[in-house]
Design brief:
The protein starts with a helix and ends in a 5-residue tail after the last strand. With about 425 residues, the protein is mainly β. The protein has two domains: about 180 residues, Pectate Lyase C-like, CATH 2.160.20.10; about 190 residues.
Length: about 425
């Protein structure tokens, strides 16, 4: 084909595509939204969203502005509510002088409804194939240095294939309610949820959470941040089948990753490259599915709180959990405290800086279930493993110890301890 004709054909196709995209997009300004930070834009946004639904779906664009909401929004099926951000921004200017504030740039949603009422409707509800992308969610009336006011969930994901993409949850009390849906996608979400970050439950088809990072970018004031560290949970997982979690991180919570049993059931899934820094307990496992929680390439640090511990497996646990190629450090009291009837395994992991109170605590203290510790490195000259009389089975093999091998076995069950090398 003639190069000139080829170029013209490409331009025609591109122009037609852009026209089609433009026809499928609506601008909230055309429906009366002001973005001036003082006028309630709830009704204007909902009109635009409903109009997009009448047209069979499409995008509702919120251009640069500070949009005040005294109410809440429902994003209909096949509709995307979109701001200007293509990549999730950071606005820690309220904490750090000279850095951007949430009202300086981009698309910012100022949420005010239901202060003091955690049980009210979510600010934004997503439905079948609906998406929220490229916005900042900010609660301007939230207390920055005191016990925070409760608010409902910032986002609720319902239906099939709802998505949250490139969203900054700057300071919600409750972040994302990812329950009662299928195949949710939560990607590129940053911020500082105060009470709960992401809650997953009643998921019967694969959910995905990717590149979600919760840091105290909004406030580290003593009263507020102290409350968060005592009460906050970054990620909580109830019933979810084949949950995939990749490249997630949290800092400054009571619990980083919490696995619980709800009326719907328990979690199984693949957790790759996850991290928890300065959480009272990085991972708490109350229950898991028998198929297992697979936690790989994780990094966990605990050094504050009444009893800083990396991993706590509760007496209610009956499933299977495997930590593989994970690193545990920080001057904590203990790496892992294990109870229950289930199986907990550590393979090719690195353990550093336990027994901060110098009480002779073992890095791993197992009081129940089945335990596997294989191919790990204990990088402190301290007691390594204690198997209590409630342990039913254990394999402790091929580990590297700093100093002498210090393994205590009080289990009357089937236990193999071999090929552990001291220094």
């Amino acid at each position: 084909m003639n190069p000139h004709k080829s170029f013209v054909l490409c331009m025609v196709i591109l122009t037609a595509t852009l026209i089609a995209q433009d026809q499928a997009s609506l601008n909230v300004r055309d429906f009366g939204a002001t973005g001036d930070g003082t006028t309630d834009d709830t009704a204007a946004f909902q009109k635009a969203l409903d109009e997009a639904a009448k047209r069979g779906g499409g995008q509702v664009i919120a251009p640069r502005g500070n949009y005040l909401f005294a109410g809440h929004l429902n994003v209909p099926p096949a509709v995307t509510l979109r701001g200007v951000w293509e990549s999730v921004p950071a606005h820690n200017g309220l904490r750090d002088r000279g850095l951007p504030k949430p009202t300086d740039d981009g698309t910012t949603f100022l949420v005010t409804e239901n202060a003091g009422n955690e049980d009210g409707p979510p600010f934004i509800t997503l439905n079948h194939n609906s998406t929220l992308k490229g916005v900042v969610i900010y609660y301007p009336k939230q207390k920055i240095d005191d016990v925070p006011d409760p608010y409902p969930w910032a986002i609720a994901m319902r239906g099939k294939n709802p998505a949250v993409l490139s969203v900054e949850l700057l300071n919600p009390y409750n972040g994302i309610d990812a329950t009662r849906n299928e195949r949710h996608l939560i990607r590129d979400v940053h911020g500082q949820p105060l009470r709960r970050g992401v809650y997953v439950d009643q998921i019967y088809d694969i959910g995905r959470i990717e590149n979600v990072h919760f840091n105290p970018w909004w406030s580290t004031k003593p009263k507020l941040f102290g409350w968060q560290m005592t009460n906050g949970v970054a990620f909580a997982f109830g019933r979810t089948d084949w949950q995939y979690v990749f490249n997630t991180f949290c800092f400054g919570y009571s619990v980083g990753y919490h696995f619980i049993k709800t009326s719907a059931g328990v979690c199984n899934g693949n957790f790759l490259g996850i991290g928890a820094d300065d959480c009272y307990t990085a991972v708490v496992i109350e229950e898991s599915a028998p198929f297992g929680l697979l936690i790989t390439n994780g990094e966990f640090v605990s050094f504050h709180g009444p009893d800083p511990t990396m991993v706590e497996v509760k007496s209610t646990h009956s499933g299977t959990v495997r930590f593989v190629n994970c690193a545990f450090w920080g001057p904590c009291n203990q790496i892992a405290r294990i109870a229950g009837r289930g199986t907990v395994g550590f393979g090719d992991c690195t353990f550093v800086q336990w027994d901060k109170p110098k009480e002779g605590r073992h890095a791993i203290q197992a009081n129940g279930g089945s335990v596997i510790v294989r191919g790990c490195e204990f990088r402190e000259p301290k007691a390594q493993i204690e198997l209590g009389d409630g342990v039913r089975r254990a394999i402790i093999t091929d580990n590297l110890m700093t100093g002498p091998v210090r393994i205590v076995n009080r289990s009357p069950g089937a236990v193999q301890i071999s090929n552990n090398v001291g220094q």
